[in-house]
Every structure is written in structure tokens, then in C-alpha cells.
Amino acid sequence: MGGASKKITAAVCAGTAAVFLATSVANLKFEKLLKTESFITAVCKDKLMSPVRQKEKTIPFNQIVEPTSEIKKKANEIAKTAKDENEAIKLSLKVIDSFSFMPRSETAFPQTPSELEKSKKGDCNEFAIYLYSLLKEVENFSNFKFNPKFVEVYVTKEREHVNHMALQIDTGKGKIFVDPLSKKKIGVEYLVYRVLDEKQFIASYYADAATYHWMNGKLKEAEKNFKIAIKNDPSSPTAIYGLSKVYSYTENNELALKYAQQLLRLQPNWSHAHLRIIQVYYDEGNYNEMKKAVKKLEEIDPNNKFIKMYNGIIERYELFNSTK
């Protein structure tokens, strides 16, 4: 979903734009606030760009995680050096440490291992992809078993509400989470997460690309890739969240609400889901439902920094109506 302890700052990549817009107008008088919101929405529509040319066929999983010659070389070295799986994981994480963290790559689709080796910098998705590829190759060069799977993280043990990618490792002795961007790295704990199969990972991959598109004003391309993601995984929270945002930006409040409600049913303990439906109600001018939604957000994430802002908007609305 960044420098200090390489915190899970990639979480913001899928959730701040609409809330930022609301923040920028929260201190205006209520009458001006409504006009400003309409103006912002119109600007978003005007910035639509022609879709980027792209292959129509879904990118295969094996193509995304395809190992490079450098990965194979490092995997062979790790297999010869490591005494057990745990040491092999630590050595693999050291390889990831050679790359620099960047909250959002400069490419639409997350970088493949070969692309990451060239750029030398990446985000949580790209680090997870590279680590997955490396561990699979270590398996090929040894008797070690990792059975890595991708994990979408929504709430950390510290109750941070994020949109993050990590790995689950199963050596046969127990399942653990491995996260190159956390302080602990091995044995990380999460409160809300999903372990993805290959098709679900493809969905996450396309949702990540779609997020890049809508953040750059390419809403048609974003809609297209979010729909590809949902086709691969109808229960993808990141794709459903993103598609709702696209429809908000294009003033299709009916569809924006539909997907926001679906998201909330799927992830009722994720603050991003609550923030999404709050924003939809705000766009509709439905302040009664917005007020209820803010209260639910307070229940699951009482320290959320946007609660005060939204309550302020509601208070201004109620004050405005009381003076009519």
C-alpha cells in the first residue's frame, strides 16, 4: 500500500491521494468546500490520458519471477555456504539489502528480477519478487525447502494499517513470514493478511500497475488493469479498493460505492476500506452515513490521523445546516 527503519511506507502508495484532496480543503468554509471538491474532481477528469499500449494477454506468473543468471549464481553460492534453511534465508536477505528502497518504482508494473538488478532500487513488491525467485533457485541447488508464497499484508502486529507485500516460508518445521523491509526480517508477525496463490499474485501485480496509472492521471488504463486484477482474483482488496477510487475520480459514485461496500465486507478490519467508503459518502454529500462510517473507523483504528479531519468536516456540515 520510508527511510526510518525502512518502515512499511509502501503502504501509502495505494491510499493517500483522495484523502489528501480532502485534507487540502478541510479548513475552508463548508460552502467553499463543496465547490472546491467539485473543481478537484473536474481537474482529475481533464487529466485523463490515452491508454498506454500493453499486451492484452495476462503476464504469466513464471515470467514475473523468472530468475536471472545473477540469481542462479548467488543461489548456488548460498546453497554451498548455508548450513540450514534459516541461514540460507539470512544470506538471501543480504542480497536484497544490496538494493535501495524506493516507495514506488518508476515503472507501471513492478520490476522483474532482471529489471531490479539494473535499477538497483525497488519497493516491497519488487523485493518480494526477487527474494521469491532467489529462494526457489536455492531450493534447486540444495535439499532446502522454503515453499515461498506471497503475502498481502493489511495490518501489522503494531496495528499499522498498510498495503504491503512480504513472503511466507514453510520449511516443513513451521510457517514464518519474511519481510526484507522490516527490522526483524524473519519471523515477522501480522494481524490481518492474505497468503496468495499464483493467480491471486497476478491480481496483486496488475493492481499495483493500475495504482501507478491512477496516481499519474491515467484513469482509463488504471480501470483496465484493476479489472484484469479482479478477473484473476474477485476478492482482491487492493484491486477493489483501487477500482472504487477510479470511479470516484470519474464521478461514478454508484460504482464507487458498490466497490467500497464490497471492500468493507472483505476487509472490515482494514482502515483503508473504511476510509474509502467515508470518501465515497463525502463525495455524495451523504454526511449522515459518513458520520456512521467515521465512528466505525474509530473502533478499528482509533489513532488514524484522518479521523479528526473527517469529524471536522462533519461538524462544519452540521453547523452550516443549523444556521439555515
Structure description:
- It is built from 14 helices and seven strands.
- The protein starts with 16 loop residues before the first helix and ends with a helix.
- Helices cover 56% and strands 11% of the residues.
- α6 (113-119) links the parallel β1 (100-101) and β2.
- The protein has 324 residues and is of the alpha+beta class.
- It folds into two domains: 4-56 and 234-322, Alpha Horseshoe (Serine Threonine Protein Phosphatase 5, Tetratricopeptide repeat); 61-199, C8orf32 fold (Roll).
- The chain is elongated.
The low-pLDDT segments are 1-55
Order of helices and strands: HHHHHEHEHEEEEEHHHHHHH
Structural class: alpha+beta
What is the CATH T-level topology of the largest domain?
Answer: Serine Threonine Protein Phosphatase 5, Tetratricopeptide repeat
